[in-house]
Structure formats: C-alpha cells, structure tokens
Design a protein that fits this description.
Blueprint lengths: L1 E4 L4 H10 L6 E4 L17 E4 L7 H9 L4 E4 L9 H7 L2 E3 L6 H16 L2 H9 L17 E5 L3 H12 L3 E5 L5 H6 L2 E2 L2 H7 L2 E4 L13 H6 L4 E5 L8 H9 L3 E6 L21 H6 L5 E3 L8 H19 L9
Parallel strand pairs: 1-2, 1-3, 3-4, 4-5, 6-7, 6-9, 7-8, 9-10, 10-11, 11-12
Helix pairs in contact: 1-12, 2-3, 4-6
The structure holds 1,4-dihydronicotinamide adenine dinucleotide.
The site of 1,4-dihydronicotinamide adenine dinucleotide has 29 residues, from helix 4 and helix 6.
Length: 328
C-alpha cells in the first residue's frame, strides 16, 4: 500500500523501514504536519500515517476523502486530535497503536519525579561547573509517601506497581477498577481523596471532554501544599495558567510535565535560534522546581519498534480486509 507519513522525524524513517521487512508497503515521509494546508501533498496514497499533534479535524477529513484516502493510521495511542465522527461519516477507517511499552511512559513519569525531587538537573550543571556544594538540592524520601494516580490503564497500572515497589501508599482513581492492582496493594478512592491525601499526583488518563482541565484552580485548592504534580498524559488535562499561579504561591511544590496544552506549536521542533512566543511555557521554564520534557515518554527502542510493527500490522489487516482489532 502507498502510505504518506506526516510529521516525520528521522527515527520514524529508521523504525518503519526496519519493520517493512519484505518491502510490502511504499512509504513517503514528510516532515510537515497534517493540516488543512498540507493535504495537497497527498498524491496516490491510500493511507496517511499521523502522530499526536497532526490535526485530523472534520475539515481535514473532508479533504482526505476528496484525495481518496481510506485509512488514517495513528502511530500513537492517544486520539484526541482525530474527529472520529467525521471519519466515520467519510467512510475512512482509523486505527491506532493502543499499547506500546507502557513501561516507557511510566518509567518516564518516575524519571520526572525523581529528577525533580533530587534536583538532578541542578547537580549535573553544578558539578560540571566545579561547584560541589549541596545547598538547595535537598529532596525527600519517596518511600512512605502517598502517591495518587489518576487513570490506571496500561501506563497508570505500571506506574502504580513501580511506586508500590518504592514503598509508597498508592491511591488511584479510574472509571474501572483493576482487580490485580487492588490485590497488589492499590486503593481506589474518589478524585477528591486523591487531591486531599497525595504527596505526589501522576496523571495517566486520556484527554476527553470530561478530563479537560482536570487540574484547575479548584482541584489545586484541594491538594496538599507542596504536592508534586506529574503529567505524562496529555497537556489539556492541566489548566496551565492555574498551575503557574500555584507554583508562584508555593501550593504546588514541583511540576514535571512531558506534555503541554499548546505543545503542537513547539514540540518535536528545534526553536533554539528563535524567541519563543508562548509566555505561559516561558514562565513555566523559569521555575527552579519545574521540569519540562518535550513528549519523550514513548521514546525507547522497545516502544518505537512496537509502534512501527503494530502500525504496519494494522495496515496489513486493512489491506487484506481482515477485522481491525485496533480500530477506533
Ligand atoms: P489506557 O486507555 O490503557 O488507560 C487510560 C485509563 O484512563 C483507562 O483505564 C480509563 O478507564 C481511564 N480513564 C478514562 N477516563 C477517566 C477519568 N475521567 N478519570 C479517571 N480515569 C479515567 O491508556 P494508556 O495507554 O495507559 O495511556 C494513558 C495516556 O497516556 C494516553 O491517553 C495518552 O494520552 C498518554 N500517552 C502519553 C505518551 C507520552 O509519550 N508521553 C505515550 C503514550 C500515551
């Protein structure tokens, strides 16, 4: 099948070519994102392969239909950027990669937590500057702390187990309870209890109309003073302006994010020679207790291999008219 890739990064080319072992498919890789302007770049492809920040709204989908696209293959798990109803109306199937190394993202959430707590980014720079002092690097024992986890699907469940391994008390909230996690020691509670009792809160639920701005001025006011907030899920779960206020007044003790509400303007691109116009992100990066990574949670060898293999398996199934187990 002829497949057009949008928002391609060099590692996509490497891993997708590797997975296309018998050269069954013909790929064209574009660095441009998919949006209303760029559908013109489609030539004779049957499928488009897109990532988290490609804009697959109703108007783009209308254009895809005009270009005879029959399949949208997401090379990611989240699908909040796709208008599924419009795709159904257009008769275009949508497939995704529902799970690819949940360990990659869960481990990244833990990385953010530990790096923030022990100020690794500061000590790295200090030692390189021959400054061997410890002032300001004080952290806390993660052992014994209460960790609140919102969303215990693939990634949240792995995160819960890691935190249990640290000797934490793990509280969780999800619309479904995971029995195996409960047996392992996780206690399901209301979101209010998570906010009120957690020393550390980590978000692992998808972005939906229900979860948009789950963390806002109101929920922050319910949290313990000094709480550490980690978000590796989707930026829209957090009302960033409220979080900035809470960082300024010390209510939030530290923030680690791998996702940001306005990330599609910035992430996966190099702006090191330009002035960033996003004042909220610029403010965030001035705080000494904020760590921002640019949506790299998924970025491990294992996850990239699985993403490419599952995406091609989805495309193969579509081509052979087989049931699409990863259809949306
Ligand atoms: P999943 O679908 O396995 O789990 C999501 C869980 O959230 C489900 O158990 C679901 O019941 C729960 N949930 C839904 N609505 C909820 C609500 N209102 N309150 C509490 N829980 C709710 O998804 P998975 O694979 O664990 O991924 C979680 C999120 O992580 C994805 O939606 C995606 O946005 C993000 N992600 C981030 C990556 C990164 O590189 N930073 C990579 C992959 C995923």
């Amino acid at each position: 099948m002829n497949i057009l890739f949008f928002s391609t990064q060099p590692y996509d080319v490497t891993y997708f070519n590797q997975a296309n072992t018998d050269n069954a498919h013909h790929f064209r890789f574009l660095e441009y994102p998919l949006n209303e302007d760029n559908t013109a770049l489609i030539k004779d492809e049957t499928a488009v392969c897109v990532f988290v920040n490609d804009k697959v709204n109703a108007s783009v989908i209308r254009q895809l239909k005009e270009k005879s696209i029959r399949l949208i293959a997401l090379r990611c798990a989240g699908f909040n950027n796709v208008d599924l109803k419009a795709a159904e109306e257009a008769g275009i199937r949508v497939v995704r990669v529902p799970a690819y190394s949940p360990h990659a993202v869960a481990e990244h959430a833990v990385t953010l937590l530990l790096a923030l707590n022990r100020k690794i980014y500061k000590s790295y720079n200090r030692v390189r500057d021959n400054n061997f002092t410890l002032g300001g690097l004080e952290g806390f024992d993660v052992y014994g702390k209460t960790v609140g986890v919102i969303g215990t699907g693939n990634i949240g469940a792995v995160f819960c187990r890691i935190m249990l391994g640290f000797g934490c008390k793990v509280l969780a909230h999800d619309v479904y309870k995971n029995e195996a996690l409960m047996k392992a020691g996780v206690t399901y509670v209301s979101p209010e209890t998570i906010m009120a009792e957690s020393d550390i809160i980590s978000l692992h639920c998808p972005l939906t109309p229900d979860t948009k701005h789950l963390i806002d001025a109101h929920t922050i006011s319910q949290m313990k003073r000094g709480v550490v907030l980690i978000n590796t899920s989707r930026g829209g779960l957090i009302d960033t302006r409220s979080v900035v206020e809470a960082l300024k007044n010390g209510h939030i003790g530290a923030l680690g994010i791998d996702v940001y509400e306005q990330e599609e303007q910035l992430f996966f691109q190099n702006f090191s020679g330009t002035i960033i116009q996003d004042d909220v992100l610029s403010r965030l990066t001035t705080f000494p207790n904020v760590l921002v990574t640019a949506h790299q949670g998924f970025f491990t060898r294992e996850a990239l291999t699985q993403i490419a293999e599952t995406t091609l398996a989805n495309i193969n199934a579509f081509e052979k008219n087989e049931p699409l187990k990863n259809a949306l």
